[in-house]
Amino acid sequence: MAATARPSTFAVLPVALFGSVMGLTGLSVAWRLAQPRYGTPPWIAEAIGTIALLAFVALLIGYGAKMVAAPAAVVAEFRHPIAGNLFGTFFISLLLIPILLAPYARPLAQIIWGLGAVGMVIFAWSIVSRWMSDRQLVAHATPAWIVPVVGMLDLPLALPSLGLPPMHAVMVLGLAVGMFFAIPVFTLVFSRLLFEEPLPEALQPSLLILIAPFSVGFSTYVLIAGQIDLFAESLYFLTLFILSVLVGRLRHAVACCPFKLSWWAISFPLATSAIAAIRFGTARAGMITDAIAILLLGFATLAILALLVRTLWGVARRELRTMSA
What range defines the domain where residue 65 resides? Predict the structure, then answer.
């Protein structure tokens, strides 16, 4: 009896839960950027970063156990036309975690980033090959398709803190592939939202993923270009516009949709929006830009804290299967 129950328990753990590591890491970076500009206490960023690292280790162990106990479930998840894209959350986590580790264990951070960079490029290549090799259904064009694109945009973000030799070509590769594919994928998903049936309730929170190409693209472009120019400003204001549209949808989702682990899809876009606003507010100091940055940082913090508390409460009550459905 126990032998048969054990694999089924591991089988319900979704790979998309690595999105929680992305959101927590992004929030830690946002609070770290807020320190010199707004004088926030450093312990907040450190505490959130510690939680992100603990979440990453826990999920690494949990999903590793799933691969051993229920390999068929892992294969089925990877082959799924929607869920398969979310394996990118694991590789993105590998690209972001080094930002937290670099001040304390730079060699380890370099190794993790290297694994993440190679894995992300291979994963993005395999997903694009899948899209081009097999006929896709419009109904499958959901915001999850954005994840491989965002993953490539995350490629350069940790490099300044790692002390590696200059990798300008790698940075441009991430920006070029990420931004190029963001345009048609965003258009395809937006078209599906306009002309097809609404997304299922469980996928409604994933709409905020549509913000990520612009918010992450802003940070990546500014990192490479070294300045906030007209193109960077355009990405930032696109982030604000799309966020303002989707926040209303998010309010509706809170009212209509029971909590699922898929809600973690909102965490990384909110965190990267706050990061973009803080970067912009630092470069374009002013009452309005600072107010937007503080507002988005507060909103992202409250939302991610609520997700963390609700998830831990659900796990304590053994609701993992229900939350993963």
Answer: 2-324
